[in-house]
Design brief:
Helix content: 25-40%
Number of domains: 2
CATH class of the largest domain: Alpha Beta
Order of helices and strands: EHHEHHEEEHEEEHEEEHEEEEHHEHE
CATH topology of the largest domain: Carbamate kinase
Structural class: alpha/beta
Length: 302
C-alpha cells in the first residue's frame, strides 16, 4: 500500500517536555522505530508538525539585536530541515535497507483566505498571562488560551496545492521513503506575474497531510499522535475510545478545535475525496492501526 503518515507535534515532543535537542532526538528515535515497521512493507510518505519548533525560532529571531526578523515561511523552512534531518537519520539507523529523502515542500495558499485576518494556529511555548501581555505589546503578536496557559497564535490558511508533488511522486515510485510538508509545508502564494513568494502563516499539518495523501493517490492516511484513539467524552468519567467514526459523526463538531478536531476533519476530508482508509491513533500502534486492530478509523457509514 501507499501510506501517508502525519506525525503530530505531540509525537515529536511529549506534553510538558522541554524543547531541547535531547528531548526531540529521543522522541524521533521512537518515531523512527514505528515508521520503519511500516516502511518495510509499504510505500511510505511522512509529514510532521512543527508548532513548538517554529515558535522557538521566532522567539530567538526576535531576541537578536538588529535581526532580520525572518518571516514565518522562512522559519518554517528551517524547521522542515531540522526535523526532516533528524527523522531521515534515525530512519536510516533503524532500517538501513530503506532509502530516505527529505524534501523542502512549498504549499500554495489563497492570499484572500480569511484565516489571515483571524489568527488561530498556536505556535511556540506556553506563557502565563503576564508574559503574554508583555510579548503582545513588544512584538505585536496575537495570543489565545491553550489549556491552562496562553500561546502565540498565527494565521493558518487552508492548503490548496503542493508544489513539489511531482518530485515526491517520482521518489515514492522509485521506492524512497519521503519526508515532506513538514509543519504543514512552507506557505506560499503566486502574485499577478506568476512569481511565488512566502507569506506570514503556518499551515495546519493534518490538512496538509490529507492533501499530500489525496494528490499522491495514497491508499491510507494515518494521523499519529500520543493518544491511542479518538475519545468520546474526553476528560470525563464517561470517556471511551472510538473504534470507528462515520463521516457524519466527524462533521458533528463534537471534537475540540484545539486538539482532536483538525485531525478528525482532515481524515474525513481524505475519505470523502478518495474513498481511501484514514485512521487516527498512537504512533507506536502504526502497524496495528493499518491492520485495523488499533486507533480510530474514519468510514463513510457505520
Amino acid at each position: 500500500m501507499k501510506v501517508v503518515v502525519g506525525l503530530g507535534g505531540n509525537a515529536l515532543l511529549r506534553r510538558g517536555e522541554p524543547l531541547t535537542g535531547e528531548a526531540q532526538r529521543r522522541n524521533v528515535v521512537a518515531a523512527a522505530r514505528s515508521l520503519a515497521e511500516v516502511a518495510r512493507d509499504h510505500a511510505l510518505v511522512v509529514t510532521h508538525g512543527n508548532g513548538p519548533q517554529v515558535g522557538l525560532l521566532a522567539l530567538q529571531d526576535a531576541s537578536m539585536p538588529n535581526s532580520g526578523n525572518f518571516s514565518l515561511d522562512v522559519l518554517g523552512a528551517q524547521t522542515e530541515g531540522m526535523i526532516g534531518y533528524l527523522l531521515a537519520q534515525e530512519l536510516r539507523n533503524e532500517a538501513p535497507e530503506v532509502r530516505v529523502a527529505t524534501i523542502l515542500t512549498q504549499v500554495e495558499v489563497d492570499p484572500a483566505d480569511p484565516a489571515f485576518g483571524a489568527p488561530t494556529k498556536p505556535v511556540g511555548p506556553v506563557y502565563d498571562a503576564e508574559q503574554a501581555r508583555a510579548l503582545a505589546a513588544q512584538r505585536r503578536w496575537d495570543f489565545a488560551p491553550d489549556g491552562a496557559g496562553i500561546r502565540r497564535v498565527v494565521p493558518s490558511p487552508a492548503p490548496r496545492r503542493v508544489l513539489e508533488i511531482d518530485t515526491i511522486r517520482l521518489l515514492v515510485e522509485a521506492g524512497t521513503v519521503v519526508i515532506c510538508a513538514g509543519g504543514g509545508g512552507i506557505p506560499v502564494v503566486f502574485n499577478g506575474w506568476g512569481r511565488v513568494h512566502g507569506v506570514e502563516a503556518v499551515i495546519d499539518k493534518d490538512r496538509s497531510a490529507a492533501l499530500v495523501a489525496e494528490e499522491l493517490g495514497a491508499d491510507a492516511l494515518l494521523l499519529l499522535t500520543d493518544v491511542r484513539a479518538v475519545m468520546a467524552g474526553w476528560g470525563t468519567p464517561e470517556e471511551r475510545a472510538l473504534d470507528v467514526l462515520t463521516l457524519g459523526e466527524a462533521d458533528s463538531g463534537a471534537f475540540p478545535a484545539g486538539s482532536m478536531g483538525p485531525k478528525v476533519e482532515a481524515a474525513a476530508a481524505f475519505v470523502r475525496a478518495t474513498g481511501g482508509m484514514a485512521a487516527i491513533g498512537a504512533l507506536e500502534d502504526a502497524v496495528a492501526i493499518l491492520r485495523g486492530d488499533a486507533g480510530t478509523r474514519i468510514v463513510t457509514e457505520a
